Structures are given as C-alpha cells and as structure tokens.
Amino acid sequence: MRQKCAAALLAMALVPTLALAKAVPGKDAPAFEAKAASGGTQKLSDYKGKWLVLEWFNMDCPFVQKHYKSGNMEKIRKTYAEKGVMWLTVCSSAEGKQGYVAPSDAAKVAKKHKLAPSAFLLDASGTMGKAYGAKTTPHMFIINPEGKVVYAGAIDDNSSRDPAVIPESKNYVVAALDAALAGKPVKPASTRPYGCSVKYAD
Hints:
The chain is of the alpha+beta class. It contains six helices and nine strands; from the N terminus they run αβββααβαβαβββαβ.
C-alpha cells in the first residue's frame, strides 16, 4: 500500500513539471531531437547561429489548410528563407490520431501540401511538442541565433478558418521576424495560439 501511495504522490509531483514545459520568449529554447521525414534526425543544436521558425502542422486541420491552400504559409517561409531564416514544420499527431504522418507517407504528404521547409519533423511521440508547449496547429515559435525564443504564439490575429481574411489580418510571425532581424524588440512577443488542438497520444 505504501509503495502505491508513494508512486501516486510521485506521479502527482511530476504533472506540474510536465505541464509547465514550454518555450518562453526571452528564455532558452528547449533542446529537441526529432526524426526528419527525409531521414536521420534534427536537433536544435544543428541550427546554432541561425534564425529558426518552428511551425506545428496537422494536414487535416482546417486552420492549417487556411494558410496552406491560400499559399500564405509558403509565401512567408520563402520570403524569410531568402533572408537566411530556417524553418521547421513539425507534426506531433500521434499514430491513430488526426493528422498522423507515417514516415513512409511523409514525402507524399509534403508534396501534396507543398511543404518546403528546411526540414519536416515527425514527432509522433509528442516529446518535442510537449517540450515547447505546442497547443494548436498552427502554433509558431521563433528562435534567434543565440538559441533564445523571441516569439511564441499564433500566426496572426484572425482566428477565422476563411482564407479570405488573411490579407486584412495582422501577421504576428512576419512582424516578429521583421523586428527581430532589424535588431528591434519583438512586440508582442507572446500571443494566444488558435487552431486545432495538437493530437498528442493519450
């Protein structure tokens, strides 16, 4: 009985720590190591000295589709790639959950949705997503060359699923990158993300 109670108390003690795991503007970005769709693994340390955007992705989420079918996400990625910004698209959907991408299907999914990031990461275990506190698809993070988070939150200020609202929306990622690359403070550095919940394993 004592062993069961001790185990229960230990589990309760661990929950707050896991719940608080997240990427916070002004703090070091959580280290990660995730499988790349192209093979091998990718680590945060691989991007030391580079500007980096992390984008949480679910191919079946209408909010993700809003930014992909309109070409908005790729337009942003391409614009800043030309300025040396690296981009990682991350899928944390667990096997059997909406949006799950099997390694064998990754190339097909990337082609269908016109993904062209620096790397497409498959995080079915949810380890990377939980480390960053990724809640929605999309959920965006910007990391500076020193490994600090400079922005975390929504892609823009309009949570409608309708792509027609994109031109009139304030794009937080674009504003944050423009400010950060110019050496200016990022305001806001944190916003509330919107979209589908990340489909982690139970």
